[in-house]
Design brief:
The complex is a heterotetramer of chains A (575), B (186), C (164) and D (402). With 164 residues, chain C is an all-alpha fold. Helix content of chain C is 78%, strand content 0%. In chain C, helix 1 runs antiparallel to helix 2 and helix 2 runs antiparallel to helix 3. With 402 residues, chain D is of the alpha+beta class.
């Protein structure tokens, strides 16, 4: 057994600090050099000196140099202050801060692109005159125009003009928005996996990950990802290597595509498709193809079992899922998700889930079917570890394996988000905006002032509310998974074909007739019954919410007792 | 029921097919000759007075100095009580069947007690007693024998026999360390 | 930009279409088919026909899925088992291909393209319009299609039933 | 699908394709059967059990267990060491119930040599306490892993949380947490540590309500009941025929427990019930019955331990280890002795020839006998049911292969 020796391990401490000093010096020199290049190239070219077609290259140089400079600076700081950074990481609640910051940041990026375009348009003095072609793309605003506009409002910063110039192209703005979405999607699995491990640990009276990153192991997911990247990449030689590789992407990309049509709030959506709902369903459907390919290309019997189960389950559960979704669509009269969510604004009693009994039941049928189509427990048959080893994932390892989980967690968030938009009022707050306004006025704050706007942004609805609601439904998926045993394949199909499908059909028919009676024919007696049932359902909703809150508080207060410490166990001589 | 009574019942029924008995021991038993063991076994199981319905164990013993192998059948009678809540009644009995070492053949009782299936396979595998008409038999060099259960199918010899020598290698895999190869095998 | 997208997606569709024919493995063919159909769906997106594109995805993705399942179930030996066409099958395929080529070229050549190129396209119909048209002007074809699907479902259920 | 391992199976064990006389499913389409190798590395087989399944889609037509992957020549070793030296080897048979294995072998040897009359009362009660504690620990593992087999992961952690305390108790008494060698020929190796009685009774107070928690969490869970009720039904006669013992036999409704019907180790002084399967959720003898019998037995064990702790009160100062334990010579005689292990009846056949070393030691592991029913029960069931059935038999491969 040969031992791996690292050169700096054998050195004396003095030499080690010498190495460190050299590294710091090198990093600082590189950082200063790159930042210098960036600054020089920016200030060397005043607006008007440079031909427009050269701008992209200059920008690339500037951007690259400054990014590299920043990276080197950060590296140098890391080397110098590693102890302090470690302490900071250990003592802070960085995980939640990062998650929330990431959510807000990603949302902002998605949303800003529209605002910036309006801003640039406002800046440009001579709009439409300079239709010059660059890279076969027409553009309206030259840097000189933008700089003139900036000068007009008193901002004489040439750098800003350069930075704003590319944002007039829709393509560039879409790229920025895509960056935001992909950032958000990569936060979801990282946070979701860590959170699932913490939730499961809590349910099982354990601690879960506690080491990596200090506070409750919040860096566990990145650490796992790093480990998975370095693991051996195994491709079964008897399988089909091409499809084996392709399957990962077919599973991983569609859920990300689905995010393009998922609105986080009224304007916070990449593309507000009028067929957004069907688009998302189609994307979730394509994901299955990847799973089947994965099973097939592995050339493993367990994997084929897993993918066949997935095919069975997905094909049958898409029907009740789609049919449950028809009910809120019918209520809103649109397939556009922003319209559907907009129709439920103004207090939680307007949410479709409480609208009538049919919608109420449809919410649960949708959620069950969504669990099944996301292959989450108790419907996790395609990868049921006690029967099929790991199902279609049996032969996968390393980073490919983790990409499947990226897809799975993204899909989990999407079905939760869909449920929120269609049944739980989307991004609208449970409290009507008017109440918040009057409350703000009552406490003496202006609704349009800084704090007033902040309060309204947080409470009166928006992407944060949406993400919180979706995260709660995401949490319910975890909760169910760690509580229930797994059903059997025949029971899964029985539940779909013999129970859920007839039920959903009845719901659909009943809801149609109900809407006909209440909205179109205006039958008075039916409207009275509708009102009574509506408030009963609202009452049920309130009671359930309060019950969950009480249980959570009880668990929080009786922390120790839930863990079940045996008081005397430390007195045993052996322990 | 005391073992003597059971032995008397058997002797009345089968006469000199019961070749001996010993009750002055920690393990009272009767000896049955190999070729009539099947009918004795069936009687033990099906006689309404005996109903030994639970075959607990078949222990194979190698008596090297007597040049014989013994199969020890430990039986147990589990008779349900009169009422649902009553414990079952317990009764135990032991039968030994002796066979010569060079040609050990005993009729299989796996059709009487299904439990005997794996026990007989184990006894064949480790001690080399051939149970004729065993339901899970394969064709070997010296005729049909039960399939091996713990050792691989192509294993040589019967490890629990007193004169067994551990093989030096198995399919090219050295089965003993170099130290053990040079040491005299006890 | 749209032109670029068009060429990319058209290339994807065509290359996948060649892949369907060229591959001797049924599952690989199915994957190529998925590529073709997906490419066509993307072309619809480029043309702003969102509903059509989405329907294409949801219907044909499901269709490909079922095809793949059948492929696996009927040739469940190994990913490397391929199939070879007999001479008669090749001849039939060539005949069908020639007929289709002739038909499509005739259509393309005789169509009045100039009209649609000059006149601005009507903005793509919204889902609501499509729905209204289906339930008013095209009610009969719509219902006929529904009845056909119902018949197919009953027939499939009958075929799949275990003989007792 | 091409898999080399199964091809080898086909060549070396031709009888796997034996025609079944049992129910043949009528097909309207010709389907192909597939051989699937479940194990020796498979999460549901609890170790290195290998089951070759002949499947038609999700249906399992035949399941043939193959064992021997953990064969460690325990019986051959028994012919080379003295009985007290063999005690550690018994630990490693059923490694989840080491105390009971120690007890079984110690009792067999003591009975053979006539030492059993000279064991002090205190040693006997200590033995009973530890055997019953280990029964609880073993059933906890059975309960937890059965949840895992059905797909519920949380009960496993609950079970291990409680088992940890039992292991702490064991560790305080003998220093080991898995392979104890605590109960030995002539008694137990050491007297109880200080305050053991108090801590043990505190543990029992803590543990008793937990059983209700398990029932709420798993036993009466609708999905769990649907997965286990009416699955893998073994009738009482079949169970006896196949030589099944322990909770598997009692799950089939046979009221049979060696601690009651032929008490060893002065179990006759104790008051406890023998739970049997009653078919509450389905048929008598299904997986659920076998499972619930284990849960109920844990409660009974708590009852026994409480009484034993009570009886321990007047016995302080008695010698817990007989001096002759290590120097004993075995007479020219043999014995077969069984005790009630958590998994069933553990029997030891010991033959002496006048020397200190036995001429033959044979262990009859309950798991070995319980496993042989797999072939019979796993016919025409679904793939997921195989996991449920194997789990409900609760086999420990260390004991099957010895």
């Amino acid at each position: 057994m040969s031992q791996i020796t690292l050169p700096w391990i054998e050195k004396s401490p003095e030499t080690l600090s010498g190495y460190r000093r050299k590294a710091i010096l090198l990093l600082f020199v590189l950082a200063v050099g790159h930042l210098g290049i960036a600054l020089v190239s920016l200030f060397a070219f005043k607006p008007g000196q440079l031909a427009d077609w050269k701008i992209p290259f200059v920008l690339a140089l500037v951007l690259g140099a400054s990014l590299a400079g920043m990276a080197f600076t950060a590296g140098a700081f890391g080397v110098v202050f590693y102890r302090i950074i470690g302490k900071f990481l250990r003592w802070s609640y960085v995980a939640f801060a990062l998650f929330l910051g990431g959510v807000v940041g990603a949302c902002l990026i998605v949303w800003l692109h529209a605002e910036i375009f309006t801003f640039i348009k406002g800046l440009s003095a001579a709009e439409g005159e300079h239709r010059v072609w660059l890279l076969a793309v027409p553009y309206d605003h030259t840097v000189r125009n933008i700089y003139a506009g900036l000068e007009a409002i008193g901002v004489e910063v040439p750098v800003l003009a350069y930075a704003l110039w590319p944002l007039q192209f829709e393509f560039i703005r879409d790229l920025v928005a895509l960056g935001g979405i992909i950032g958000f999607i990569s936060i979801i699995p990282a946070f979701g996996i860590w959170w699932e491990r913490k939730v499961s640990a809590r349910i099982q009276s354990r601690m879960g990950p506690m080491r990596v990153g200090g506070w409750h192991g919040w860096l566990q997911s990145p650490a796992d990802g790093l480990k998975l990247i370095f693991k051996e990449d195994i491709i079964p030689p008897e399988g089909d290597p091409l499809l084996f590789r392709l399957a990962v992407y077919i599973t991983f990309v569609p859920p990300i595509c689905a995010f393009l049509a998922l609105p986080f709030a009224a304007a916070w959506v990449f593309r507000d498709l009028d067929v957004a709902l069907i688009f998302i369903l189609a994307m979730l459907g394509i994901e299955v193809v990847g799973v089947i390919l994965a099973g097939w290309a592995s050339n493993n019997k367990w994997a084929v079992y897993g993918s066949m189960r997935e095919a069975c389950q997905m094909v049958s559960y898409e029907i009740p899922m789609g049919m449950s979704l028809l009910i809120p669509i019918m209520m809103a009269g649109s397939l556009k998700l922003t319209d559907i969510a907009g129709a439920q604004a103004g207090g939680f009693w307007n949410w479709f889930v409480f609208a009538n009994p049919w919608c109420f039941i449809a919410f649960f049928t949708y959620y069950c079917a969504a669990l099944a189509s996301c292959k989450r427990a108790p419907f996790d048959l395609p990868e049921s570890e006690s029967e099929l080893v790991a199902g279609f994932l049996t032969e996968y390892s390393g980073f490919r394996w983790s990409l499947f989980f990226f897809g799975e967690y993204a899909a989990m968030f999407i079905v939760a988000g869909l449920a929120v938009i269609l049944f739980l009022g989307g991004w609208s707050s449970p409290i009507p905006e008017a109440w918040i306004n009057s409350f703000l006025t009552a406490v003496g704050a202006s609704p349009d002032g800084f704090f007033g706007t902040l309060a309204r942004g947080l409470l009166a609805g928006g992407p944060i509310i949406f993400v919180l609601k979706a995260t709660f439904l995401f949490y319910v998926q975890l909760w169910v998974r760690w509580t229930l045993p797994r059903v059997r394949i025949d029971q899964v199909l029985y539940a779909c074909v013999q129970v859920m499908l007839p039920l959903v059909m009845v719901l659909l028919l009943a809801n149609t007739l109900w809407i006909l009676g209440t909205d179109h024919l205006q039958w008075g007696w039916l409207n009275v019954i509708d009102g009574i049932l509506h408030w009963i359902l609202v009452g049920i909703g309130v009671i359930v919410a309060l019950a969950i809150l009480c249980i959570a508080l009880y668990g929080f207060k009786n922390n120790k007792r839930l863990v079940g410490q045996l008081a005397v166990v430390d007195q045993l001589p052996g322990s | 029921m005391a073992p003597e009574e059971i032995a008397n019942i058997l002797k009345d029924k089968f006469g000199n097919k019961i070749t001996g008995s010993n009750f002055e021991t920690a393990h009272p038993h009767v000896l049955v000759e190999a070729k009539s063991w099947l009918e004795v076994a069936r009687f033990l199981k099906e006689d309404p007075g005996l109903t030994f319905n639970l075959l607990r164990s078949i222990s194979a013993v190698d008596m090297l100095e007597d040049d014989e192998l013994i199969a020890v059948y430990d039986l147990c009678a589990c008779r349900p009580g009169d009422r649902e809540t009553d414990m079952c009644a317990f009764d135990e009995f032991c039968v030994k069947v002796k066979v010569p070492r060079n040609n050990p053949h005993i009729p299989s009782v796996a059709n009487i007690w299904s439990a005997a299936d794996w026990h007989e396979r184990e006894a064949y595998d480790l001690m080399g007693i051939v149970f004729d008409e065993h339901p899970d038999s394969v064709m070997g060099v010296e005729g049909r024998h039960p399939r091996r259960i713990l050792c691989p199918d192509d294993w040589d010899g019967y490890p629990l026999r007193k004169d067994y020598r551990f093989p030096m290698e198995y399919h090219g895999i050295p089965a003993v360390t170099e130290y053990e190869q040079t040491r005299p095998v006890h | 930009m749209d032109d670029l997208a068009f060429y990319i997606f058209a290339a994807v569709s065509l290359l996948s279409a060649i892949g369907i024919v060229a591959s001797s493995n049924i599952v690989r063919s199915a994957v190529c088919l998925l590529g073709t159909l997906g490419g066509v769906a993307c072309l619809y997106f480029v043309l702003d026909a969102n509903l059509l594109a989405v329907i294409q995805l949801i219907v044909y993705a499901g269709g490909t899925l079922v095809l793949m399942v059948f492929g696996i179930m009927l040739t469940s030996k190994s990913p490397w088992v391929g199939f070879r066409a007999t001479r008669g099958q090749v001849a039939g395929a060539v005949l069908v291909a020639i007929l289709m080529a002739v038909g499509i070229s005739t259509l393309v050549l005789t169509a009045e393209w100039s009209q649609s190129a000059n006149a601005p396209l009507k903005t793509s119909p919204s889902v609501a319009e499509v729905g209204e048209m289906l339930l008013t002007d095209y009610l009969v074809p719509f219902e006929v299609a529904s009845v056909l699907l119902l018949v197919v479902m009953i027939g499939a259920a009958y075929l799949a039933r275990t003989e007792k | 699908m091409k898999t080399d391992a199964v091809d080898i199976v086909l060549e070396s064990q031709p009888d796997i394709n034996v025609e079944l006389n049992g129910s043949q499913i009528q097909h309207d389409l010709p389907t192909e059967e597939m051989l699937v190798n479940m194990g020796p590395q498979h999460p549901a087989t609890h170790g290195v059990l290998r089951i070759v399944l002949r499947t038609d889609g999700e249906m399992v037509l035949e399941a043939v267990p193959h064992i021997g992957y953990l064969h460690r020549c325990a019986e051959k070793i028994g012919e080379t060491v003295a009985p007290y030296q063999y005690i550690p080897y018994t630990d490693r048979m059923d490694y989840l119930a080491g105390m009971n294995n120690n007890l079984g072998f110690a009792l067999a040897v003591e009975k053979l040599t006539g030492l059993e009359q000279e064991i002090s009362k205190r040693a006997t009660y200590i033995r009973i306490i530890f055997a019953e504690l280990n029964r609880i620990a073993s059933h906890l593992v059975a309960f937890g892993t059965y949840g895992l087999d059905i797909g519920a992961i949380t009960p496993f952690l609950y079970a291990f949380r409680e088992r940890e305390y039992i292991l702490d108790l064991f560790e305080s008494a003998c220093g080991a947490r898995l392979t104890y060698s605590y109960i030995t020929i002539g008694g137990v190796t050491d007297d109880l540590p200080d305050k053991f009685v108090e801590i043990c009774s505190e543990f029992l107070d803590y543990f008793e309500p937990k059983v209700k928690e398990y029932n709420n969490l798993l036993s009466h869970n609708h999905i769990f009941v649907k997965r286990t009720a009416d699955i893998g039904v073994i009738t009482g006669e079949e169970a006896l025929d196949y030589g099944l013992t322990g909770p598997v036999l009692r799950g089939s409704g046979v009221r049979w427990d060696l601690r009651k019907v032929r008490p060893h180790c002065s179990y006759d002084e104790f008051e406890f019930d023998v739970p049997v399967g009653q078919g509450l959720k389905g048929t008598v003898g299904d997986c659920w019955d076998r499972y619930i019998v284990r849960i109920q037995e844990m409660e009974q064990s708590v009852k026994i331990i409480r009484q034993a702790l009570e009886k321990l009160r007047g016995t302080e100062g008695q010698d817990v280890l007989h001096k002759k334990g290590k120097t004993i010579k075995l007479p020219d005689d043999d014995i077969y002795f069984e005790i009630e292990n958590p998994r069933g009846q553990l029997g030891f056949y010991v033959q002496g020839n006048g020397a200190a070393i036995p001429a033959r030691v044979k262990a009859r592991g309950p798991s070995f006998c319980n496993l042989c029913v797999t072939d019979k029960v796993c016919r025409d069931v679904l793939l997921a049911d195989v996991a449920a059935i194997i789990g409900s038999l609760d086999v420990v491969m260390g004991e099957v292969d010895r």
